[in-house]
Task: inverse folding
């Protein structure tokens, strides 16, 4: 950070009682907050008399670290600061919820709370609430009343439950939930519709639509005044403008607004003069005027025509009062039952923390004590505060302490979590900039993150997109981002528009796009689908378009990686980790993006997909824990015995089942009986008992770590594909066993895991860590607070609509609540004025949040910003695209692309393909690309993907989860093939050689003089070696479990069918399929080795590995096949060589010994057997390892 700017200095040194700092993206707000804390400490304030509240534990930890660093440097010669440094452990820097929990522990008596209550996890809280709601619903129907019957006649039980749940969650965000509910119910019976907030909402929306109509009419007027324009339409257009002006004036004036059906002047049908342009005439008539007429009519229909219709509408709203009262009663009963269930288990949920803390602070004595304990209050991310949180903060804020709030309302993107940005906005508009004002506003607009050109582009877009009447915020001079550096610095912002052109000539085989989404670029959908439906349905055109966007992103990434970028220490090469792809929604998108990038060898990181408790590695651990908690459970016992920790085969478990053939004899009883006589089962029983004793005597977190190490599950997870991710999941599981804050026991941990497993979609599995060299794929929400050198924003043409699941009930903190009107006899539904008004308000709020979300996404980029969209319609040509200025233009956007393209309309109309300098000086690279340019031929046979990179050759660390150490010097790299053929002696050859599955499928042979290549244009027959390699390839691709159990007469047909499918998928060339030695493949599946492989619960084919051998050579290779048997590995390598078995064995012994060592060192499990399977003869030759092989 450079020297503090003048505005930053104001925020640090100002001593007003209340200060709101509106800090733009990248303006260093956290650094300013910490520096302000330090400056107060230097003035003599005590650290333990400060309260700093954040919204995430990570933010609190970061603040503590920064403050620790600052104090450690400043305290050297200052006794007071040294004392403050010693108080860091007691500093109140935490989340608001953590503060509330501490307050309740100390002042529980003020609210009659249980001081020993613990915080319920989300899944348990949800389960208890659902139980309370079920009980309340039973009581609801068992004791009918007129109001309850009215609700039950009009809505289904599921609808009533959903409305109750929604109302409860909404109420918990209010400072006084049921007081608000009483007031809202009273307001739901409007005496005068004109004075109700609902009418105000509709009047403002009507004025916005009239503004849009006037804008289109002025454009039409300008067209009529052109020399080639339809001048004969001018009078009619001006009549319409006069009508709009009159309606707007009357609607803005105090008093009741009444209206009649508008009468539009008829356009003259006289013969056009020769100079009139027919296209311009059609544009004025069919587009601009018709659009304006529709806007005028729609605006008026939002409002009652006169007092009589207003009274009728109010009466319809009043008719919903009984149903609302019944619903309110149901929610009250549910809340009371939920409170009782929590009290019985001594639990709090997060809502309890907030409401009980607020209740305690309303106690005068508690208020004085707690408020008086702090001289200064700090609130970070104030734009994301809820109403109950605001009430707590204001209650803490007393006459003797100051309040410092920092945030950016342009980054308020959590309204769906009940955050209320209007709280920030009300202070922003009421606080003063005067230095002596008691309630002072300070704005930070200098951005230290992004290049100057990106800031100019952001300003250009949001000057149009953020308008107070349309999207809640005015992007004025104080909101504009600025830089202290070069305003022209940075690459041009890229905008790629993908257009539907001639259908791409895809190959006959199904492409990855079809495989992933099976969609097609559909024909034009109906108007109602465009305006009101979701464009995200399975198989929709937007999904197919997104595949093309992903392909484009892959191309741009490949071209960017390795280029030079500026860094704090100078220039360096751009890496994958410098790139982020930010999505509006990860659902159905993140996986597609990752799949397409991974197929092009671009590593990715995404935490958007994968439910934690469905991961096989996590399930294996939980199965063992369930048995340790209660050994008398048959299903967990079977799961535990079959997992890699014990490795029992299906045949062995079948023996156990035979001992318990009926339901009267439990399986666990047979297990413990068999353990008395069978060594395998006995060993498993003793191990389980040993672990059970350890679980009872050790902290759960430490026991889990030890269990993973001793069972080998952690090592096995690392040996699988995506091993780094699998191990990360196991580390997450261990972390969840940590004290929270009290120590956990095994029984509670297992029960909580079971509940969480029954709630899909909540807990997410791990992905590669942020420190890995991977491209990040995440949502815009999750990117908040982060920054990346290169940012891609795809999917900008995805429609906003269709996001919410419609409910009959609509809620709003200011406007109250409203219910859809239902005729119980006809089952006909009608929204009514109240619901329509509330929906208009909600739609406007959601649109505002979308604009803020785009702002967050664009401001994450430091040096390069790339925007991509694939619109269903041309970007230029619709009426609404022509109106780019004003509130209506900002508020009529249907997707983010509408906002981005609005200030670029003139340039886009020219169909550019290069640089464009926009008004304001921002430089853009505008590209319009037909999707045919991104079409791809059929996918080739997939290459082997590196599964795990493990640097072996060193002792395993004591800490299971510490990263493995690597040698300080890695001079050479080799494949196993090169090593055993003498390549190790030739450094040039060594550096160039890499073992691949294709290389392995051919026999090792000494170097020979090269012969001219055979001309294969005529499709000649394959050589014997090539036929053998094809059989090798087929064995690696097929699952032995599908064939080993087949009878002789069924085996060959099944094999032929499977091989044909391999050819169709491109895994076998057509010539290979025709020449493939089917008998050799069938012979293998009749072997004992194949049957053993098929029985194994863990088996792998063509498994690449990397091994640090003796700290001298990075050794790479590919294992043809390996499988676990009785907790150890069996290794199989297929060979196509001619000759005697003993000669082939001598030839490959060292190669196999390296494979054995790699498998053992990487996974930590023993290799019990290694086999060469000779495809020509069908022999299985065992490879003995007298000692682990080492470099000579």
Result:
């Amino acid at each position: 950070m450079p020297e503090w700017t003048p505005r930053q200095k104001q925020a640090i040194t100002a001593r007003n009682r209340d200060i709101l700092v509106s800090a733009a993206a990248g303006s260093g707000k956290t650094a300013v907050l910490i520096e302000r804390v330090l400056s107060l400490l230097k003035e003599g304030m005590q650290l333990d008399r400060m309260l700093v509240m954040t919204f995430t534990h990570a933010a609190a930890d970061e603040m503590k670290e920064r403050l620790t660093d600052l104090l450690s440097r400043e305290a050297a010669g200052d006794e007071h600061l040294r004392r403050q440094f010693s108080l860091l452990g007691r500093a109140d820097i935490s989340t608001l919820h953590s503060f509330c929990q501490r307050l309740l522990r100390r002042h529980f008596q003020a609210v009659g709370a249980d001081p020993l209550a613990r915080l319920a996890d989300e899944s348990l809280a949800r389960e208890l609430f659902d139980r309370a709601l079920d009980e309340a619903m039973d009581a609801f129907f068992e004791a009918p009343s007129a109001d309850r019957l009215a609700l039950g006649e009009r809505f289904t039980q599921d609808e009533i439950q959903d409305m109750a749940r929604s109302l409860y969650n909404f109420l918990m965000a209010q400072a006084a939930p049921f007081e608000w509910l009483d007031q809202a119910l009273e307001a739901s019976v409007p005496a005068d519709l004109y004075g109700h907030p609902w009418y105000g909402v509709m009047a403002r929306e009507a004025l916005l639509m009239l503004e849009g109509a006037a804008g289109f009419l002025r454009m039409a007027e300008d067209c009529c005044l052109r020399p080639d324009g339809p001048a004969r339409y001018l009078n009619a257009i001006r009549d319409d403008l006069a009508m709009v002006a009159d309606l707007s004036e009357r609607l803005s004036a105090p008093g009741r607004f009444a209206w009649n059906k508008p009468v539009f002047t008829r356009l003259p049908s006289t013969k056009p003069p020769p100079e009139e342009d027919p296209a311009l005439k059609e544009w004025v008539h069919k587009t601009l005027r018709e659009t304006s007429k529709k806007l005028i009519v729609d605006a008026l229909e939002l409002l009652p025509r006169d007092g009589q219709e207003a009274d009728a509408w109010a009466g319809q709203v009043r008719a919903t009062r009984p149903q609302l009262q019944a619903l309110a009663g149901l929610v009250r009963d549910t809340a009371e039952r939920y409170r009782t269930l929590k009290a019985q288990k001594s639990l709090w949920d997060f809502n309890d923390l907030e409401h009980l803390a607020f209740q305690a602070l309303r106690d005068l004595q508690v208020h004085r004590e707690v408020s008086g304990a702090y001289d200064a209050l700090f609130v970070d991310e104030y734009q994301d505060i809820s109403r109950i949180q605001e009430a707590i903060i204001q209650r803490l804020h007393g006459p003797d302490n100051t309040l410092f709030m920092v945030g950016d309302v342009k980054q308020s993107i959590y309204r769906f979590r009940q955050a209320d940005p209007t709280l920030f906005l009300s202070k922003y508009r009421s606080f003063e900039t005067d230095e002596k004002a008691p309630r002072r506003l300070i704005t930070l607009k200098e951005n230290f993150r992004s290049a100057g050109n990106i800031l100019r582009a952001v300003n250009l877009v949001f000057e149009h997109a953020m308008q107070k009447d349309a999207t809640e915020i005015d992007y004025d001079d104080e909101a504009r981002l600025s830089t202290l550096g070069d305003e022209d610095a940075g690459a041009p912002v890229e905008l790629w528009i993908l257009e539907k052109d001639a259908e791409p000539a895809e190959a006959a085989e199904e492409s990855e796009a079809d495989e992933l989404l099976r969609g097609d670029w559909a024909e034009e959908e109906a108007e109602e689908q465009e305006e009101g439906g979701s464009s995200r349905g399975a198989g929709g055109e937007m999904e197919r378009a997104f595949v093309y966007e992903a392909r484009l992103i892959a191309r741009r990434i490949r071209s960017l990686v390795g280029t030079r970028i500026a860094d704090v220490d100078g220039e360096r090469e751009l890496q994958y980790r410098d790139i982020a792809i930010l999505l509006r929604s990860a659902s159905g998108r993140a996986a597609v993006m990752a799949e397409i990038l991974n197929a092009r060898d671009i590593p990715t990181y995404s935490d958007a997909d994968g439910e934690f408790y469905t991961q096989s590695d996590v399930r294996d651990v939980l199965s063992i824990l369930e048995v340790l908690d209660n050994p008398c459970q048959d299903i967990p016992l079977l799961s535990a015995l079959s997992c890699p920790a014990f490795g029992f085969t299906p045949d062995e478990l079948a023996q156990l089942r035979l001992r318990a053939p009926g339901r009267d004899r439990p399986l666990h009883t047979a297990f413990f009986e068999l353990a008395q006589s069978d060594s395998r089962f006995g060993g498993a029983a003793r191990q389980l008992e040993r672990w059970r004793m350890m679980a009872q005597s050790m902290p759960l977190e430490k026991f889990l770590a030890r269990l993973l190490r001793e069972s080998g599950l952690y090592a096995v997870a690392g040996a699988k594909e995506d091993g780094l991710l699998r191990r990360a999941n196991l580390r997450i599981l261990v972390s969840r066993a940590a004290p929270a804050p009290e120590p956990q026991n095994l029984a509670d941990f297992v029960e909580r895991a079971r509940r969480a497993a029954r709630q899909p979609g909540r807990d997410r599995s791990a992905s590669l860590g942020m420190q890995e060299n991977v491209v990040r794929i995440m949502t815009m929400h999750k990117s908040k607070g982060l920054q990346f050198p290169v940012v891609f924003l795809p999917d900008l043409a995805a429609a906003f609509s269709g996001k919410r699941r419609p409910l009959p009930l609509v809620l709003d903190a200011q406007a109250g609540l409203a219910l859809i009107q239902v005729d119980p006899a006809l089952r006909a539904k009608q929204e009514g004025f109240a619901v329509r008004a509330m929906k208009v308000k909600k739609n406007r709020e959601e649109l505002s949040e979308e604009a803020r979300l785009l702002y967050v996404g664009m401001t994450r980029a430091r040096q390069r910003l790339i925007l991509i969209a694939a619109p269903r319609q041309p970007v230029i040509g619709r009426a609404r695209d022509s109106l780019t200025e004003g509130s209506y233009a900002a508020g009529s956007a249907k997707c983010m692309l509408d906002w981005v393209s609005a200030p670029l309309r003139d340039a886009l109309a020219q169909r550019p393909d290069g640089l464009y300098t926009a008004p304001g000086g921002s430089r853009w690279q505008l590209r319009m690309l037909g999707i045919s340019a991104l079409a791809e031929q059929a996918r080739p046979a997939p290459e082997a993907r590196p599964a795990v990179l493990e640097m072996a050759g060193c002792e395993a660390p004591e800490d299971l989860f510490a990263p493995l150490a690597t040698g300080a010097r890695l001079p050479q790299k080799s494949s196993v093939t090169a090593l055993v053929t003498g390549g190790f002696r030739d450094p040039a050859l060594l550096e160039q050689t890499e073992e691949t599955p294709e290389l392995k499928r051919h026999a090792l042979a000494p170097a020979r003089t090269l012969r001219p290549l055979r001309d294969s244009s005529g499709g000649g027959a394959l050589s014997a070696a090539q036929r053998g390699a094809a059989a090798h390839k087929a064995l690696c691709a097929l699952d032995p479990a599908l064939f080993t159990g087949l009878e002789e007469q069924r085996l060959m047909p099944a094999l032929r069918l499977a091989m044909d499918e391999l050819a169709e998928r491109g895994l076998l060339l057509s010539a290979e399929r025709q020449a493939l030695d089917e008998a050799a493949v069938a012979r293998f599946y009749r072997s004992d080795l194949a049957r053993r492989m098929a029985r194994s619960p863990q088996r792998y084919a063509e498994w690449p590995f990397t091994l640090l051998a003796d700290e001298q050579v990075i050794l790479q290779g590919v294992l043809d096949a390996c499988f676990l048997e009785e907790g150890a590995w069996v290794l199989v390598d297929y060979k196509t060589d001619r000759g005697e078995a003993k000669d082939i064995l001598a030839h490959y012994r060292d190669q196999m010994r390296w494979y054995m060592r790699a498998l053992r060192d990487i996974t930590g499990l023993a290799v019990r057997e290694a086999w060469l399977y000779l495809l020509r003869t069908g022999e299985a030759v065992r490879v003995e390892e007298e000692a682990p092989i080492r470099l000579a």
